[in-house]
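Re: folding output
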Amino acid sequence: MKHFFWITAFAVVGVVALQAQKSNAPAPDHLPANWRNWTHITTGVIYSDQHPLFDPFGGVHHIYANAKAASVYRNNGKQFPDGSAIVFVLYEAKDAGGMYVAGKKKVTAIMVKDSRRYSRSYGWGWQAWDASGKRLVTNPVEQCANCHLAQKERDMVFSQWVP
């Protein structure tokens, strides 16, 4: 009976550890090789400190989506299926004679939908890299998900399709 108790206890601890491991899954560790061939969703420019995200995200934004995510965007959907991936690229905004153009790259980021693997961060895994390739996301809930909660009705996605 004593052995049964310990075997059961270890089994419960193992299951809890596996569930915790799934919910604390690491952020995506790389960008897919072909992301520049994905659908371009939109471009925007945060150009003024009047925008609340000017300090961290001022500049030219380009958003790309893989086929699963692009389908949701095109249909004005609000729920992205697992396997959806969205890449965000941020460049310095450079004034080229009265026209804003992309200057030096500042950040490249990805969000990947996997409801089970990223359950603690609302079904999305996030990672970002600076221009030198240094990983920036160490706590996806604090650094990404909490801000994206403002778009919970759109499955945490800010950008919208611009045909």
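--- second protein (sequence, then structure) ---
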Amino acid sequence: MMTGEQYKKSLNDNRETFFEGERVRDLVTHPVLGPCAARVAQGYDHWYSPGSDAVSPLMAIPHSSQELKERIPLQHESDIVSAVTYQSIMTLTTVATRIGDALPQYAERIRSYVRGAQHRDIRIVECITDAKGDRSRPPGKQDDPDAYTHVVDRRKDGVVIRGAKLHITGASLCHELMTIPTKAMKPGEESYAIACAVLVNSPGVKIVDTTYAPRHPDARNFPVSSKIHMPEGFVIFDDVFVPNERIFLDGEVTYAAIFAHSLGLWERLGGLSGMAEEADQLVGFAQLIAEANGLARESHIKEKISEMIIHATLVRASLEAAIANCQVTSEGAFPDELYTNAGKYHAAANYNSMVRHLHDISGGSILTAPGIADFENEVTGPLLRKYMGTMTGVDGEYRARLFHAIRDLTADSYGGWKAVTNVQAGGGLYAQRIVTRKYYDLKSAKEKALHTAGIKTAEK
């Protein structure tokens, strides 16, 4: 396993990262991206264990419902790059299980890659969403054939790929890019049915970063995002060579969708677990600010918080059901598809309503509360404490800190990122509806309805 310092040194490998128009030569010392690298390094130190056979708990494959459940709090403790590494490892493990009989050579490559990644203690991110071009047309009928990542040259020892992958959290801070098809492919689209692991410093890989990181000099006004922000990478494959041993699918269009579906399962489980935690946080903030405002006993406030509690409980129940009903195989434990997708859909579809309740309960000071430094000013501090306070025991600064946390979490740059990510991560809401319908026992539901109606068979 690597230490945090070893991880920082591993980033100095000539990778091409660009941020706000300039190439970043040193990620570790960069004023905006540097703290992100430091956060990943802290995770390395947190999980570090000496010994040549040690494996990070975030890279160990669960083999039971209990082990699957134990991974959830570990993901919440970790940085998002480490959490995505776990999802990447599990995505590939799921794929190996699903293609093992039909494509044993690829399945064995995947297993070998996973073992190597565990041993090297690397960080991996998921590259799935393509540039896509004209969304109404498939990959092979685009004006620009590079709209979807594809193979442009095949050599004896590997392939050359070209294209771009969007929305790749932490791409600049990982070691490898798990690159897979974004959707099912059809005959004639063989060059787009490519799945592989790409070294982030491979010649031709270029990453353009954006970020929701707060730029305010006083991080206390951003108590959430200042601690957890990560860059979003636009990953470009500008004729990148990938050796054979890193190729997990090459042209077998029938199996392209398996990669996307497998990633969707683990992305949605991660999203579901994250939103279960967030739902509890929203309830907590709603109750705290209602108490601070003196409105906790008002019936309409209690009703809103009750609705938020029910939402949080249902999201948590879906997560528990997805884990409790997991499928256990010789490869590992895999969450239940139905509960994972239905839970993720419910959590994402209702998130904005819960945030609306929180904003309604809190009031306009979410946006206009004075900064923490203003409470420390000898002139304004006493006056702000007086007028921001509401009653004995509720200090004005305490109330302002609650407002800042709520704004940062739900109504500022990070809040906007969360609102979009909760819907889009792991595929949009439509994708979860499709999978939910696929795994729901509709036949049994029809039989129950017929039995209730006293009808023996359904008419054709």
